[in-house]
Amino acid sequence: MSSAASVGEGPRILEVRTKILKKNDELAREMRTNFAAAGVRVVNLVSSPGSGKTRLLTETLRRLHEMGRAVAAIVGDLETDNDARRLATSGAPVRQIMTHGLCHLEAEMIQDALAAWGADGLAVASLETLFIENVGNLVCPTSWDLGESLRVVLMSVTEGEDKPLKYPGLFNTADCVVITKCDLAEACGFDRAAAVDAIQQVRPGVRLLETSAVTGAGLEAWLAAVS
Amino acid sequence: MHELSIAMRIVEMVEAEVAAAGGGTVQCVQLRIGELAGVHEAALRFAFEQAREGTVASAADLSIVHLPVVVFCQRCQQPRELPRIPPLACPECGQPSGEIRQGEELELESIELLERAL
């Protein structure tokens, strides 16, 4: 990989020119290939804490599970398995990753979780869709590819319309942006046009969906997008 | 604080490269970091100071080249460096563009190596 560009007096320069997250990128690429070969769609949900990932995902899993679709979810949090318990009320298989302080999920954690799950009898290859609920964070998950086929960035109407402008790096990696908690839009004085404009400024042309897991509004389009 | 994960990867890579090069002491590690990489320089420097301890890079400096975002403007048919983000739009004509040509880099560029211990 490296080559000594200069030898002699002074320091040697080793030219490396390698991505720092190469190991993660390579593993993620391999996982993506394997998921695709097995026909498993992988959806990575990323957002700030409290924007409604778990609520939307619980409703998503419940509906798809009731329709007989083979779905499962992995959820990452620093501590507790509270979200796994919430998601499991859907009836779908769920696995918690506790990162114990780490602010994002990495490809290796997904690989390990799937291996452990396999040992417990869940055949990942038999899934139609695997959802990954990332650690709530709008910065750190940006650079960690998890082998997903779809990265969804959520923002809720309660967070402020300019969230995408404040965190352009993460929003820029979105394949799809979902505005959540739309049932609260009026109460929050949510300015939809400003939010859409902010999203377009950091991810021009990205697919936009609007949902309420409480009223069910927008869920049909969302389910069609992820299953 | 994902900078600690990144710093640990940098040190792992540096150790492997130095071992492959026959050993030595690292004087400086040069990185290329794009503006969209989501890396905070002060946090990375702090994390690197922790991660380098007890390794061949224990006295190494970090040299960071920051790369601005460059998008390709479909209207102008030109790559355009953005003076600021957001918006991801051509600074000349205002056309939004998500075609990022530079700015997502997170790379270990090179390692300055002394043959003997400092």
Structural description of this entry:
Chain A has one domain: P-loop containing nucleotide triphosphate hydrolases (Rossmann fold, 3-Layer(aba) Sandwich). The longest helix of chain A has 17 residues, at about 20-40. Chain A has helices at about 20-40, 55-65, 80-90, 105-120, 165, 170, 185-190, 190-200, 220-225; strands at about 5, 10-20, 40-45, 70-75, 95-100, 130-135, 150-155, 175-180, 205-210. Chain A is of the alpha/beta class. Chain A has nine helices and nine strands. With about 120 residues, chain B is an alpha+beta fold. Chain B has helices at about 5-20, 40-50; strands at about 25-35, 60-65, 70-75, 80, 100, 105-115. The interface between A and B is large, with 40 and 38 residues.
Quick one: overall form of chain A? globular
SSE succession of chain B? HEHEEEEE
Q: Which residues of chain B form runs of ≥5 with pLDDT under 50?
A: none
- Write down the oligomeric state: heterodimer
Order of helices and strands of chain A: EEHEHEHEHEEHHEHHEH
The number of helical segments of chain B is 2
- CATH T-level topology of the largest domain in chain B: hypothetical protein PF0899 fold
**Estimated share of beta-strand residues of chain A:** 15-25%
CATH topology of chain A: the name is Rossmann fold
Tell me the structural class of chain B.
Answer: alpha+beta
Largest sheet of chain A: 7 strands, parallel
Q: Biggest interface between protein chains, with counts per chain? A: A-B, 40 and 38 residues
**Count of helix runs of chain A:** 9
In helices, the fraction of residues of chain A equals: 25-40%
Residues in helices of chain B, as a percent range: 10-25%
Overall domain count of chain A? 1
